[in-house]
Amino acid sequence: MIQTLHSARRQRLPARVPAAAWLRIAAAVLAFAFGAGAAQAARIGVLSNRYSSQAAADFNAQLTGHTFTGVDVGAGAPALASLTAAYDVLLVFADTPQRPLATAPAVGDVVAAFANTGRAVVLGTFYDQERSDAGGNGWGALESLDPNTTDGIGVPSPNGQPRTLDAATIVVHPLTRLVGTLSATQWAGGNEAKPGTVVVARWSQPNARGNPDPAIAYRVTGNACVAQIGIAPHYASLGSYGVQFGGDFYRSWQNAFDFAAAGCRPGGGVDADAQAVPTLSELALAALALALAGLAFFERRRIAARR
Question: For the chain, percent helix, then strand, then coil, each to nearest 5?
Answer without folding.
Answer: 40, 20, 45
